[in-house]
Amino acid sequence: MKKMIFLAVLTNISVKSFAQAEVVIFGGPQITSAKYTVNGKKQSSANKYGFQLGTNLKIPFENKLYFSPAAFYSLKGYKVKLNRPSFPPDTLAIDNNTTIHTFELAALMQFDFSIRPNHFFLKFGPSIDFQLYGKEKFNRSNNSHIDRNMIFSFEKYGRYGASILLQLAFETSNGVLLCCQYSHGIGSINNADFGPGIWHRVLGVSIGKYLGKKK
């Protein structure tokens, strides 16, 4: 009986919380790169430009703390100079320039610094990104050039990556959000045994808007 009462209360709280959930749409540019290592040795990498576009919820949790799950498209990539053999992309490759289309799911907690209509807030939490499609261009030490689709498999690039997201943002009284976000990859997108370690690094800004929110 106690378990049934507990479940009923928990369900009631969950229903009420989701009933109070607010929906946000957001998008903006970002700078992307990667931490790239071969046999533990860091390789020189450079930035590329991408963007993100998606939606998230703001669900009451406790006081000024909220659950804010997000789902969004993110265009990522990196440029890397290689001083030792790396497979993927190729044991003769001396560099690589990738463009990767990803879909990301994040389980974030949001803390509002104030209950005033105009206030700053902080978001943080883990995310999983799905590598949907990618292109890579690289030069070989034999003076040849390769331009091809990235191959995702158990022996090459991986379909999944993991990151920790941190976002600092400002919410205005009319429901507009101005955000700065950093994504720190903690799961390599390489699957090949003895291959490189490749962790996404993303720094972006975005503008968002609550749907139907009035203050």
Layout of strands and helices, then pairs:
Blueprint: H1 2-19, E1 22-38, E2 41-42, E3 44-46, E4 48-62, E5 65-67, E6 70-81, E7 95-106, E8 109-112, E9 119-139, E10 145-149, E11 160-171, E12 176-187, E13 197-210
Question: What can be said about this structure in brief?
Answer:
With 215 residues, the protein is mainly beta.
Query: Approximately what portion of the residues adopt beta-strand conformation?
Result: over 45%
The N- and C-terminal alpha carbons lie at a distance of: 42 Å
CATH topology: Porin
The major β-sheet equals: 13 strands, antiparallel
- Write down how many β-strands occur, each being a DSSP E stretch of 2 or more residues: 13
Structural class: mainly beta
Oligomer: single chain
CATH class membership: Mainly Beta
- Rg: 21 Å
Supply the CATH architecture.
Answer: Beta Barrel
Ranges where pLDDT stays below 50 over 5 or more residues in a row are: 1-17
* Amount of helix: under 10%
What's the number of helices? 1
Mean residue pLDDT: 91
- Run of helices and strands: HEEEEEEEEEEEEE
Query: How many structurally independent domains?
Result: 1
Envelope shape:
elongated
